Automatic annotation (TrEMBL):
Name of the protein in its database record: 4Fe-4S ferredoxin-type domain-containing protein
Lineage, highest ranks first: Archaea, Methanobacteriati, Thermoplasmatota, Thermoplasmata, Methanomassiliicoccales
4Fe-4S ferredoxin-type domain location: 308-335, 336-364
NCBIfam families to which the protein is assigned, alphabetical: methan_mark_16
SUPFAM superfamilies hit by this protein: 4Fe-4S ferredoxins
Amino acid sequence: MTIRTYSEIKRKLSAGEAVVMTAQEIKNCTEKEAAEADVVTTGTRGVMSGTYGVFTIPIKSSKFSKATSLSLNGICAYPGPCPNENLNLIEAVVFGTASAGNYGAGMLFRDMLENEPVHVEAVSKDGKQISEEVFFEDMPYAKLMSTRNAFRNYSAMTNPLDHALTTIFHALDFPSNYKELTFSGCGSINPIQNDPSLETIGIGTKVLMNGAEGFVTGTGTRSTAQSPNLTACADMKEMNPDYMGGFMTSEGPECIVSWGVPIPILNDSLLKDVRILDEQIQLPLLDVSVRKPIAYIDYGKLWNEVSLSVKVHADKCRKCELCRVVNSCPMSAVSDAPDINRHRCFNCGLCSTICPDVFSADLGSVDVNIDGIMRNIPVACRQSDRARALKISRELKSRLLDKTFVLTEPVEKLRP
Ligand code: SF4
Ligand code: SF4
């Protein structure tokens, strides 16, 4: 049985002798090659509503005592919990699910990081109205935290009803009669999927959150032993806007977060865990109207032999007066059809469902037996971005190898 210690792996990393593989590489190599791995890098990117930001916002335009209400680009924020009296700044919390119409906090966080001006509206305790533009670079403190992120287990959704529904699980109204399927989760490269007993992911584990170094702080709300999730905290100033953002659903905007997590291979049991394949990971197919399982499928059909991104056939674009893709892209990544802004694109595939002549992608489909009837349900929209999660796992590997990211040993085990 192979036993490695943290100090041995850290010594090898610092001497440039460690073997680091991405979660995808370790599944594709031979057993002999896999046995050499010291660290495996995992990743996930998806709609993760359990996220909030904490900011210090300097106010220059007027002197005021203490803010009692606040909005950022129209989005409700919460001043405090510190008193902030007579300091001409507002310390505030913004929930990742907060929104003003179609503009959500995930979009705000990304806009802030891209240094777009943030319109601050506040009212002070003494009734003063504050209205000014603030830039992210002038905010001395900006951190993102999570209340629950990076679940091990996610679900797929379909709508069995005879009418369409609005839901956070589809970018458009969810069509009726099992016509479409949506799903979440990056499958076999997902962090906890590669360390399901949370042997190496613990309090103090250093991770990448939206590309910035952060630390696991615990498990989050609704975390269970069967379905654990994680909380973390990271400096937003160090984040990469391409890894975050807001995803528009038919129930309003949601917040996107990405994680990269290193798994040190301390023993044979961990080596076995990181070799898990998509087809070995089951997920329930839920009736979206009541969130109850109606069948069980696996990630093999969802992530193997499908297109991780969309191809554009610009010559096929008819330049319609009203482009449905421009109106429906959940990331606003298509402003001038058919060009895709690849930095914004989430690789959800919805454009290939809406306008398949111009945008091509094989999103896959599943064959399921529901109440004795065999159905083939095509994937219409993905709420996890495996292409970018793979990129994160590669970036984490490079950073471990060039020593710009240092592996940490958890200070305490997680109790999901
Ligand atoms: S991308 Fe499709 S829907 Fe949009 S203008 Fe072109 S042909 Fe029309
Ligand atoms: S895959 Fe298409 S619909 Fe989805 S984010 Fe990218 S451009 Fe928009």
